[in-house]
Amino acid sequence: MQEALRPYAIADKLRTLRLRRSMGLAQLAEHTGFSTAMLSRLENGRLVPTLPTLTRIALVFSVGLDYFFSDPRKRHVVAVVRRNERMRFPSDPNPLRHLGISRALTFG
Predict the structure, then answer these.
(1) Cα–chain center distance at 39
(2) Which of 6, 25, 80, 98 sees the fewest Cβ atoms within 10 Å?
(3) How far apart are CA 75 and CA 104, in angstroms?
(4) Rounded distance, CA 12 to CA 73, Å?
(5) What's the whole-model pTM score?
(6) May I ask which residue range the UniProt record assigns to the signal sequence (predicted)?
(7) 31 close to 21: Cβ distance less than 8 angstroms
């Protein structure tokens, strides 16, 4: 199981989140309810976290679970759309004019 999770570098991401906030293991333990020993094992890769464990840690740092399972180098998605395939938005502020419908039309 640990080998399957190694590419995600969950342990490194946990430590990075904690250190970015200048937070010690004891402080993180207070916020999560986990022991400092357990958190240390998680950060050193000696313990595989469960999803509920990751969820509690993610809540402390205001990140989603996807943070632990995604590669930051692959987060940016770029789409190329050819000129003739692009959607055109009407330049007219009253897009209903071509249908013969006035803005002054009220419902009531």
Answers:
(1) 22
(2) 80
(3) 46
(4) 15
(5) 0.61
(6) none
(7) no
